[in-house]
Amino acid sequence: MGEFNSKVKTLEELVELRRQWRQEGQKLVFTNGCFDLLHGGHIWLLEQAKTWGDILLVAVNSDESVRLLKGPQRPIFPLEERLEILSALEAVDYLLAFSEPTPQRIIAALLPDVLVKGGDWAPDQVVGGREVEAAGGRVVIIPYREGKSTTEMVARIVNKDRKDTKG
Are 113 and 29 contacting, i.e. CB atoms less than 8 angstroms apart? Predict the structure, then answer.
């Protein structure tokens, strides 16, 4: 649990760390998402994102914002558990929870060197992309892995459950 707590930071702490990382010449990579029901697609995204820099910061949607984005049945796992699971991944250096609909404010405050999203996003749709590029950073789209979305997995589980209860 100590490792979990040490990876989760506030935006204020991260702004200070960002100053330090810039002075040290370290490259900050940023990505965000719900990360509900962690699966191979998430692992792929996070490991690929980490290769673009020195420090990987993952911003995670609050339970309320997940419900707004994904519907009333989500998240499957509460924020604290999602943060704990993500903190166990070697590729993830820092975590930040956020409750806004998008991470725009976070991205504007930190101006990461690399902003990463999955292949289901077009570069011009990535929130904060313009600001990152204007500051000399780049937007990177990691190719989407077919069949590796939480929404698809939940649908498969629900459909399997329905078949099993009918039989």
Answer: yes
